[in-house]
Backbone:
DNA sequence: CATGAATGAGTATTCATTCAT
DNA sequence: CATGAATGAATACTCATTCAT
């Protein structure tokens, strides 16, 4: 039921997809997620979608553009909206950084689960296709990092975070969160993430595994 | 210059490769690392190696076996030897967990840098090829985890680590270290990792980003 | 001019073949008949048919299925219909076994000549491909033998045949008729069979070469 | 145990084959008989024979010459010797044509059984390879027919055969005997032929299946 | 004499894509 | 808008054959 992403894709472009077009999108998502873009042929997509191959090319021009048409709306959704939806409200409230982090993780996980297949495609192809990497990684840093920086600095002022430079913090958080999403959703193909796991992740990000006495 | 892994592969099998056969290996490594297994044709490998395609298949039988012949020796090298080389010595000494972690990271990073291309192939295909995933992930958990568990419990007894269950610790460390290697070597394609970055990673793993007063 | 079989094949499946598709069929028949299935490449077929190799595979999937698509309709035509067309009418009439045999041979020869190339393919591959052999020989025995048995027993009752067991008669007739078709159409590649030859064959099957006085 | 043919091949050429060379010959015979010349690769032969492919080509030059080296000695054995061994003695004796035919069939069947694989190869390739056909069929007619003609005419004079022209008789006998060998040894892959079957064949060739009263 | 190494030319089959209807 | 038909270029892989050692 990846209709969610699907609908978002629609609304953001205000395009009405016919039934056949929807079937193409859904078939492509399933196959790309499962076997990877390179190992999925347009013939397979057409067969699963029960349309002719020609219809796919009529709509999307090339296989590559089909991939982008699936990925990009979701990509935009996943990274930038981070701030607008979550940060905006929470940071101004009285909530702690821990609360923010928990909420932030929960929220992103929920979004990733709802669109797991697209999410898998993004990670797989981000790592696999040199060109995608070059286009999307800068985007991530620009958009996502800039907003998170504000939040981190806000909580730094409140004394909830150590005085490690914000850039380094971001890097560490990205590394961990990226590793978390990749391992949970791509490597392990998890269907759900339970609260405890979120809790453990938050705790690790905040305090690591060293005993408190060993702080320097 | 991934001759290092290459030589290890050789010695472990004590096979003498001819000059042309070496060129095949090197061409395959470069192309698989750069464009991914699925996007590299045997024709391209043959062309870069300046041999006939037939020679590739005479030696390796299938493209798949060629991939495995490149990956597996390095894979065995990277994961299990962790304990024997590094853990063995350090854990018995008077060194702290922080020292161990630092040394461990340094050591693995050095190994990964020496064989960066193979390393990139492993990560890319681990994520991309469902079958490889199913074969290699259990292996990682078995071999690598079992040895690290010993170390963690040793340092727990010494009071250097919090009382989080070892399994959770391992999971968090794997997540972070995996994210670290994937982002540094695959996404960012770094040629080197400076000391400061190692230091930051160690610090994050031990203490996170929360201020010490916020400990629970 | 093997259009005859070709049309029958068509009608039995009620598939409309495009001009190019017909050229594929005709090219495949010619080449398989001339050089044998194993010695004919799909590239050759495509070239002779003046289509792309891809077109062949779009239609038939594999080279093997192409062979079967050529062979099977004709095969079904050649063996079972034997009874329905020929036997049915003749056996009930006042005609002699000699008359029946002559008519039967004439009829099968005519059919084989009209589709000589397909016929050559069937015999060649029946002998050459172990798998085809296993599928088709039982079919021949089942379908063809069962109907001929009735005819032979009818004429036995009329006293026109010796009292050799029907099974043995059938075996001898099959051996001779099979040898006849194989030698005439495959080994000698005859374009026509004249009446005299049919007469000689009938005579041989009925009376052999011994002088009548030497009967036992 | 097709050593028999094998030895004859040796003696007729007075060549001593090394152990490896014998293994090549035996491997080739088995594989050609089983899967056909076209579907057997020199690599397979080399593997089964446990020699290098190069050795095969050192010995035989081409795959084609290897086939001929297997076929020709046996071919010469099967057809011409017919007369010398069998005809010579029998025809001059007081034996009947029936006795001759029985002995002749027995003798040829025995020879074919001893070298069944070679025999299968000959029939398969005779039918399959246009070139072989063109070389060998004239040979058969020349050599084999000429000798049998003498026998038939001898027995004709003795009144044991009808007055059908010798040529027609030969053709009919060839057709039946050819059909017999092809069906028994290639299609049905029989391991042995029992006496009764020989008896039935002889009877059919002499008297056919018509009742004696129906003679003209 | 025997072979490991190497290959040019195929081999069946797949691919993304185009276009007339 | 949708598709059946068609394909050039590739794809992984095989083949019979050569040659230096």
Residues:
């Amino acid at each position: 039921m990846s209709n969610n992403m699907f609908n978002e894709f629609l609304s953001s472009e205000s395009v009405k997809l016919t039934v056949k077009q929807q079937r193409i999108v859904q078939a492509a998502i399933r196959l790309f997620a499962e076997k990877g873009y390179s190992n999925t042929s347009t013939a397979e997509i057409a067969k699963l979608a029960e349309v002719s191959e020609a219809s796919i090319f009529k709509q999307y021009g090339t296989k590559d553009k089909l991939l982008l048409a699936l990925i990009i709306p979701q990509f935009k959704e996943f990274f930038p909206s981070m701030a607008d939806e979550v940060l905006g409200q929470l940071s101004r409230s009285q909530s702690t950084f821990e609360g923010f982090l928990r909420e932030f993780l929960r929220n992103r996980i929920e979004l990733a689960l709802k669109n797991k297949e697209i999410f898998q495609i993004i990670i797989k192809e981000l790592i696999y296709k040199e060109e995608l990497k070059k286009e999307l990684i800068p985007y991530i840093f620009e958009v996502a990092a800039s907003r998170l920086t504000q939040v981190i600095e806000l909580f730094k002022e409140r004394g909830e975070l150590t005085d490690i430079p914000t850039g380094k913090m971001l890097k560490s958080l990205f590394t961990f969160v990226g590793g978390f999403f990749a391992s949970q959703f791509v490597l392990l193909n998890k269907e759900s993430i339970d609260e405890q796991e979120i809790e453990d992740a938050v705790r690790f990000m905040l305090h690591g595994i060293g005993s408190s006495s060993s702080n320097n």
Summary: Residues 18, 20, 51-55, 58 of chain D lie near DNA strand E (CB under 10 Å from a C1').
